[in-house]
Amino acid sequence: SNRLAEGGRSVVELSRGDSLKKETTQKMLRLRKEQEEMKELTFEPTVNHTNRFARHAESKLKIVEDPDNYLQRLQNDAKSRKDLLRRKKQVIEMKDLEEC
Hints:
It is built from four helices and no strands. The chain has helices spanning 2-5, 11-40, 52-56, 70-99. It starts with a helix and ends with a helix.
């Protein structure tokens, strides 16, 4: 009790301190173990640039090559699809009229 009056630590404080020290030590050991395990991992993926398809592959969006025309290309694609559908409908209608 004199130690407490002099600024010493209580049993509870000692217990908490020991607990925190133990927890910190365990975390450090766990981190070291993980680091050692990571050193053993040597996988490095390789990208095959020799494939003839890979050499000639290009982005369909072409955002990097032609960013200014991206929206225009989207609109053109949509218009092309719409025109194609319209033509298909016309063909079907013509066939229906011929059958009458």
